[in-house]
Amino acid sequence: MNCCKNCFQDSDVKKYILKNGKIKDCDFCGSKSVPCVEPHDLRQMLNPIISLYISVENFMSTDELKEFEGDMLWEILNRDWYLFNIFDNTMIESLTAQIVNTKSYKEDYPLILTSYVVKKEDYYNDENHPSEIMENKWEIFTDSIKTINRFFLQKEFNHSLLRRMIGICKKTIHKDTVLYRCRISPNKETFSSSEMGRPPCEKATPGRANPRGISYLYLALEEETAISEVRPYIGDLISVATFRLTKDLKIIDLENIVIKRPVKYGHNLSEVIKYLDFLRKLGEFLEKPINPLRTEIDYLPTQYLCEYIKHLGYDGVRYRSSLNKGSNFVFFFDEAFEVSTIVSNYTIKEMTFPNYEYEHLK
Ligand SMILES: [Zn+2]
Questions:
Q1: b/e string for 25-36 if b means 16 or more Cβ within 10 A?
Q2: Residue 29 Cα, ligand 1 centroid: separation in angstroms?
Q3: How far does the centroid of ligand 1 lie from the alpha carbon of residue 203, in Å?
Q4: Residues 195 and 315 in one domain
Q5: Distance 104 CA to ligand 1 centre (A)
Q6: Residue-number span of the structural domain to which 264 is assigned
Q7: Cβ distance 348 to 250 under 8 Å?
Q8: Residue 24 shares a structural domain with residue 97
C-alpha cells in the first residue's frame, strides 16, 4: 500500500515523502502519479509521538476497562497532532495501522491499535513522572517568587528553555482586529471614549498580569466576554468601547497551545510537552477570575511571567475567559490601538450566569 504527501497535514512528513517517495498512485487519498512511500516507512519519524501513548489494556483491570471510554490512537493522531489531511475516518484508521505495523490481519495487530490509548505519563504515578515534575516546578516557582527572590530568580527557573517554549506559542494578531473593553460606572455617569483606555500608572491596581503602578490594557475578543469579565450586577451602568488595531502585533497565545511541528523535536518531544505544561499553568492562572480575597502577592507569579514575555519583545498575551469561554488579551502597550469615539452604554437587566442581559441606554 502507498500513501502520499496529500494524505498528511504535517509539513515534516510531507517533506519526507517528497524527498524519498516514488511516483505511484496513492491507496488512501486517491491522488494519481504522486510521490508515495509505504506507510510503515514513516514509523521511525513518528515514533516520538506514538511512543507517548500506551494501550489501556496494559494496566487497567477488566472492570475498569468496561467503564473506560477513551480515544483510539488514530483519533489522537488526527485530532491532537493534526497529522492527516484525510477526512474519511476508516481511511485514517487503516493508514495509522499501516504506519504502526506491517501486519495485514487485525488479529495480529498490537494492542496500541486495537484498544483505547492514553498518555503514558498521565497514568504512571512515579516520582519521575514528567507532569509531577512540572507540577512541582510550578509550586517551587510560585513559592520562591512569593517568599525568596522577587526580582532575580536563580535556580528555580530555566530561562533559556522557557524562552524557547514561549516562542512555540507566538502568534500574530492582525491589523484591524477589533477588541472590547468594558467599565462599570461607579456613579451612574457614562464614560467618554478618552476614559476607556488603560488606567494611568498612578491608578493602576495590581491585576493578573500587571503589578501595582504599571498599567496594561486588558481587552476581550467579544463584547460579551468584556462585559462578563467586569462581573456587573443587576442595575449596574456599564460602558463598552471598541479598540481597533492599527498594525500587526506579536502575542503569546496561551489559549491554544499546540505543537505545530512535533516531528522536528524527535525524542525531545516529551521534554517539550512538559515545559509547555508549565505555560499551560500560566494560562490557567491568568484565566482565574479576579478574587477580592486573593492578596496582591498571589498575582506575583503571573505578573512575573507576563513581564518576562514583555521583556522578550512580545506585545501581549492571549488567555481564555473562565467566565464565558471567550478570549481575553492583555497588551503591554496601547500605542497600536485606536479607541472608538462612540461608547455604548448599557444597564444590566438580568444575570443568567455566565451571560448577562442588558439594555441599551438611550
Ligand atoms: Zn494520498
A1: ebbbbebeebbb
A2: 4
A3: 60
A4: yes
A5: 19
A6: 167-361
A7: no
A8: yes
